[in-house]
Amino acid sequence: MNRLIGMVCALALNILSAGTSLYSADRSREINRIHAAQEVFHELMETPDHAIPHELLESAKCIAIIPGQKKAGFIVAAEYGKGLAVCRTEHGWSGPVFLTIAGGAFGPQIGETSTDVVMVFRNREGFQKLLNDKFKIGADATAAAGPVGRHVGAATDVEMHAQILTYFRSRGIFAGVSLEGAVVTPDHKADEVLYGRSVDREAILNAKVPVPPAARELVAEIRRYTEGEKAEANRR
Description:
The protein has 236 residues and is an alpha+beta fold.
C-alpha cells in the first residue's frame, strides 16, 4: 500500500512539474512576443522618412504590432502572424492584448521573408473591432495603406477616412501596404498567460487592468512617439 501511495504521489508531482514547465514556456514565448513588438515599433519610428507620421500617432486610438517570425536565424514559413495591440485611454496607454492575423495579402508574404506589420486604429470603431471574435480587414473595418514620412503631407482622402492604416516591413524596408482580406482574431490563451488569469479584453484595453511589468517598456516606447510635442522633444 505504501508503495502504491508513493507511486501516486510521484506521478502527481511529475504532472504538476510538467504543467509548471509548460506554463513557464508559454509565458516566456509571450514575453518574447512583447519584446519583439517593441523592437519593431522602435525601428519603424527611428527611420523618419518611412515612419508613421506623428500627426497620425498623436490621434491614434489603438496600435497593433505583428512581428515577423524567426527561429535560429531562419524564416519560419507560416500563413499567419502573432502580435498584440494596445489602446489609448484617458489614463494613458493600456496593457497589451494578443491577436493573430491570417490570410489576405499577409499570408503569401510571411512565407517568403520575415514580415512585420503595424496597424494604426484611428477611431472608436476600430477599437471595437479588437473586441470582436474576429474581423476581416477591408470588409468589417475599412483599411488603407498608411502614408509614411515625418508628416501626413499628401495623404489621400481614402487614407484619411480609413478606420485602420496598415504598414509593412519586408527585407528591412517599411512601407504602407494594403492588407485587404486578412482576418484578425484574439489570442485569449496568450492573454491569460500574460495576466495570470482570464481577463476581459475590454477591461485591459480600457486600462482597467494594470500594465504587466513585462509590458511596461513596450508601453513606454509607444508613449514616447505618440505624445505630440513631448515625443518630438524626446527624440532630440
